[in-house]
């Protein structure tokens, strides 16, 4: 069998089963595990899947930069932002992540809401600059242009001085086994610090992020309080989160 044919079969397995197990794929294709692992590495370099221990998971289409992600699932993100905004209670201290879905959350925050928002996203801060009842605190650091957020040691140190009620997290990928993950190591560190400093962590997950994986884990699923997505997501995709006691909010 040609390498190209074998790779197509592996991608079909991934599409059908939502994962590729290297040992099972090697047996099914009558080749060595080393051959399968090499194929998976090459497919990962092409951005067609995400390598994990023992095999591969679907890669997230949300790995592009901020500008590219603005054109993905626009209606879904708007609905998610609206639903998430109604989870904020008056007087709360809220961490809001950067990202295109967070931008929608900001747009849908009620004008009569009084709360404090702490963010490392210049876009979120500017989006709330005309909101009459929201106090905005900016976390400094080096601007990570890919995601338009501040990052680095100064950002993490500032986060450690705060105890927020809730953190609205944006990530590239949400998966029952791989947890929450993203495409940049330092960005994952900042998100992890925000989660640790909040009473609750709620992830904003448009459908293309579900059941996918990215290179750097932020937190395991057990540390997640809630998930906001759209009602059109199939029940079988949401069931693993509900079984773990994670509150699923449908927009």
TrEMBL record:
<dbReference type="InterPro" id="IPR014036">
    <property type="entry name" value="DeoR-like_C"/>
</dbReference>
<keyword id="KW-0804">Transcription</keyword>
<keyword id="KW-0805">Transcription regulation</keyword>
<dbReference type="Pfam" id="PF08220">
    <property type="entry name" value="HTH_DeoR"/>
</dbReference>
<dbReference type="Pfam" id="PF00455">
    <property type="entry name" value="DeoRC"/>
</dbReference>
<dbReference type="InterPro" id="IPR018356">
    <property type="entry name" value="Tscrpt_reg_HTH_DeoR_CS"/>
</dbReference>
<dbReference type="GO" id="GO:0003700">
    <property type="term" value="F:DNA-binding transcription factor activity"/>
</dbReference>
<protein>
    <submittedName>
        <fullName>DeoR family transcriptional regulator</fullName>
    </submittedName>
</protein>
<dbReference type="InterPro" id="IPR050313">
    <property type="entry name" value="Carb_Metab_HTH_regulators"/>
</dbReference>
<feature type="domain" description="HTH deoR-type">
    <location>
        <begin position="3"/>
        <end position="58"/>
    </location>
</feature>
<dbReference type="InterPro" id="IPR036390">
    <property type="entry name" value="WH_DNA-bd_sf"/>
</dbReference>
<dbReference type="InterPro" id="IPR037171">
    <property type="entry name" value="NagB/RpiA_transferase-like"/>
</dbReference>
<dbReference type="InterPro" id="IPR001034">
    <property type="entry name" value="DeoR_HTH"/>
</dbReference>
<keyword id="KW-0678">Repressor</keyword>
<dbReference type="GO" id="GO:0003677">
    <property type="term" value="F:DNA binding"/>
</dbReference>
<keyword id="KW-0238">DNA-binding</keyword>
